[in-house]
Amino acid sequence: xxxxxxxxxxxxxxxxxxxxxxxxxxxxxxxxxxxxxxxxxxxxxxxxxxxxxxxxxxxxxxxxxxxxxxxxxxxxxxxxxxxxxxxxxxxxxxxxxxxxxxxxxxxxxxxxxxxxxxxxxxxxxxxxxxxxxxxxxxxxxxxxxxxxxxxxxxxxxxxxxxxxxxxxxxxxxxxxxxxxxxxxxxxxxxxxxxxxxxxxxxxxxxxxxxxxxxxxxxxxxxxxxxxxxxxxxxxxxxxxxxxxxxxxxxxxxxxxxxxxxxxxxxxxxxxxxxxxxx
Length: 278
Description:
mainly alpha, 278 residues, 60% helix, 5 helices, Fusion Protein Consisting Of Minor Coat Protein, Glycine Rich Linker, Tola, And A His Tag, Chain: A, Domain 2
């Protein structure tokens, strides 16, 4: 009886120990799992940033990043288009203003040239009228002198013929004009030998080089001639075109340069012509 009781006791204790060990194992494994969720933040979480990525769970069938880049590109293109349109509008307005200024300057220049031409024509007409009057007066004065000379010759007794003297040519206004023209022609021919004219040419070249900036794109051979008048201080008081280039921008650049001219020495109080050539 006692053996049976011991056996039963041993078997029971064995199974009890096994169940305790199993329970201890299961409870230990269960305690390794933690149900609590821990929240962490990235390095730039507190700085406001723009999100460029989203979870694939939310956008399984769409590429969000590609859409975002396309939207930004479209916005940039719109902004650039607006900026270009604004620049083009401003450039158009400025071009219109410049065109108005140039047209007004051209009109005033044409009016000035027309006035100068009228004045020159009037002065020429006056000079020709004065010359005609002088000739008529000379003829009227010469007639009574010739009559008196004839009377004196008739009253004088006949004398032996004297040897003929070479008569000097009478000096008339026409002869004076011819002599002046010859002098001018000789000066033009001997301009390179005259030191004053040579120095004047070098002076003009230096002033034109520093003040005149012709526009880009003007064809070679373009030519424009102007007649200038200076005062005793070397400032340009009058100028007019004797030959235009038919290129408005080219002529305007020359006018702007002439306004800055300041001569000295031999060129003060003179009238001379400058040939501007490209």
